[in-house]
Specification:
308 residues, mainly alpha, 12 helices, 2 strands
Length: 308
């Protein structure tokens, strides 16, 4: 039901997809512009890394068969390892600069956009009202920066686990595993991303709805997630599973379509989950208001103290 309501709400607010997409394009422009300061170093190191890892060869074949998936991901992994190694050998300062931009500043900007989107969705769900992206950005900028700064650091272990699991799968050398490899490369990352989403889903909605500090918002969000933990995990798994399958079937060009949709869908899903877990009524579209179970009907007896 959460997945169905999330799709309905996304369709009713599809203008936010374009606004968020434009914001992401601006973020990419800022990121690339800052990287361009040392573009010659990055270009030379990337060219050398691509040649040594054989990265260009992975685009010559499809991505359906297990062996080609393993070879492609192995090339990407080798490229990343060689790139960072050669970058720090060439210039340690430029290497640190690249890591700060890639692993902190760029995700921080994206998470600011997430808070803005959740703020706009909150306005629609609570009163069927709409507000501009710029107004929501300025309104939430202070809290968005605080949330995004901590969220980037909090997500690093989850992201490292996902990357490590994919690299580990490419290192499995077994003829039988080649037949189940396509399924493994779909199911394993989808499970890990759903696991990550379960521990993050309530944070931004709690911050937007209750406007508490970052740590208290996380506690409120986790409490909401745990009320429907199995549903949150399973719905997240379905969303990521569909995204990965479509990407594998349609190839790299599918990313152009999937990424602009998957990000706002996740944001909408988190808001729907939080409203439903808190027993809050909300608009799905201009003609439909949903009334979830009240909070006291959702909580267990031992959780009753949290109602005070």
């Amino acid at each position: 039901m959460m997945f169905k309501n999330s799709i309905k709400l996304l369709c009713a607010n599809f203008d936010k997809v374009w606004k968020l997409l434009l914001y992401h394009i601006i973020c990419i422009g800022v990121y690339v512009g800052l990287l361009a300061v040392f573009y010659r170093t990055y270009f030379d190191v990337a060219s050398l890394s691509a040649e040594q890892s054989g990265l260009s060869e992975i685009f010559n074949n499809g991505t359906i068969y297990g062996s080609s998936i393993a070879d492609g991901l192995m090339c990407i992994g080798d490229f990343a390892i060689i790139f960072f190694k050669e970058l720090f050998v060439a210039n340690v300062g430029i290497g640190i600069y690249f890591c700060l931009l890639t692993f902190y500043l760029f995700p921080l900007l994206l998470n600011v956009g997430k808070m803005v989107t959740c703020e706009m969705i909150y306005g629609y769900m609570s009163s069927c009202s709409k507000q501009s992206f710029t107004f929501a950005l300025l309104k939430t900028l202070k809290s968005s920066l605080a949330y995004a700064s901590l969220k980037v650091l909090y997500a690093l272990p989850f992201n490292a686990l996902i990357v490590a699991s994919m690299i580990a799968l490419t290192r499995i050398d077994n003829a039988v595993f080649d037949y189940i490899m396509p399924f493994a490369f779909v199911i394993v990352p989808a499970l890990l991303m759903a696991f990550k989403e379960t521990f993050n889903a309530g944070w931004a909605p709690a911050k937007v709805v209750y406007n508490q500090n970052i740590c208290k918002s996380y506690r409120i969000g986790m409490r909401a997630v745990l009320r429907r933990g199995a549903r949150v995990f399973s719905t997240s798994f379905i969303i990521f599973l569909l995204a990965i399958v479509i990407s594998m079937v349609l190839g790299l060009y599918a990313i152009i379509i999937i990424l602009p949709l998957i990000s706002p869908l996740i944001h909408v899903f988190e808001m729907v989950m939080f409203f439903s877990s808190q027993g809050m009524r909300f608009y799905v579209d201009s003609d439909t208001i949903l009334s979830p179970k009240r909070l006291e009907e959702v909580d267990k007896i031992e959780d009753a103290k949290f109602l005070i």
